[in-house]
Amino acid sequence: MTLTHEDYMQRCLDLALNGLGSTAPNPMVGSVMVNNERILGEGYHTGFGKPHAEVEAIAQVKNPALLTESTLYVNLEPCNHQGKTGPCTDLILEKGIRKVVIGQCDTNPVAGGGVERLRNHGVEVITGILENECRFLNRRFNTFHEHQRPYVILKWAQTTDGYVDSDRAGIQGSGPAWITDETCRRLVHKWRSEEQGILAGSQTILLDNPQLNVRSWSGRDPVRITIDRTGKILAGTLPTIVYTFIDQQNKPNLNFVRISPVSPVWPQVFSDLYHRNIQSVLIEGGPTLLNTLIKEDYWDEARVFIGPGWFGNGVKAPEFAFTPSEEEKIGNSRLLIFKRNGA
Questions:
Q1: Predicted local distance difference test score (pLDDT) of residue 67
Q2: Which among 306, 312, 309 is positioned nearest to 324, based on CA atoms?
Q3: Which backbone phi and psi does 337 adopt, to 5 degrees?
Q4: Which of 6, 37, 54, 319 is catalytic?
Q5: Disulfide check for 222: which of 190, 198, 213, 309 has CB 3.0–4.6 Å away?
Q6: 330 bridge partner residues
Q7: C-alpha 292: how far from its chain's center?
């Protein structure tokens, strides 16, 4: 069977996915070197500051003399600037590689220009192979550079009758009513390891002080974030960025960022996170916070667990009149995945 550009590009995507949660703020990239339908080398970007995928793939080729007769496949345009590592375009030209097949052109204006430079040096460059799939893989990276804000993922769990919590008003110290089981909660910890930031409402922080970390999974903890307009959070046991309308001095574990009460909140928050180089945020807020994001159209994905419980009354789930693009059974719950662009 003759393999196609799409077959090799799919291999690049499969390799790239291994970097999920480790490469940010860099994109996820996989690469393969092919000679006469035989893969000579392959690799992926394993972590921020580490060698790029093209470097890994080229390094695996045992006979460098074959490079001039081979094709380099990569799901993202080779970089053309000096960062923590050298430009991949320099390496491609140095090794005499004459053909490069690319999935998606780079949306980062700093790193872009690789296609033009390669073509100017006589390299045959083919672009747009599995472009939609390549863009979806790096949707966080693309959203960050194209819209100057983080990629926003909403997450909540609700009962079969549509409640996210029991009525805890006036019940001091009562914890949240669990809707999902341990399997679902472990999956959420995996999700946290894949995103750079995690945001919960100030009421959730005050009532439950959730760790919002990845203690049930391996990987790095996301940056803990909240919005406390009126300055109710006075002390913190965990490092947290707190967006507030009040002028406050930073305290141990609390980094206060003042935002304007006369301007829309979310653009200010997302702009600050953008300048902090945080490319993605998982929102685990209550329905009031989630509803504002939904109403103002500041979301890219939503992940909703429908648990088997029946509360009868309590805190209603967010109003979300969208059609899921995926559905599966996880533990004791149904998981619905929504994507704003329908991908």
A1: 97
A2: 306
A3: -110, 125
A4: 54
A5: 198
A6: 333
A7: 21
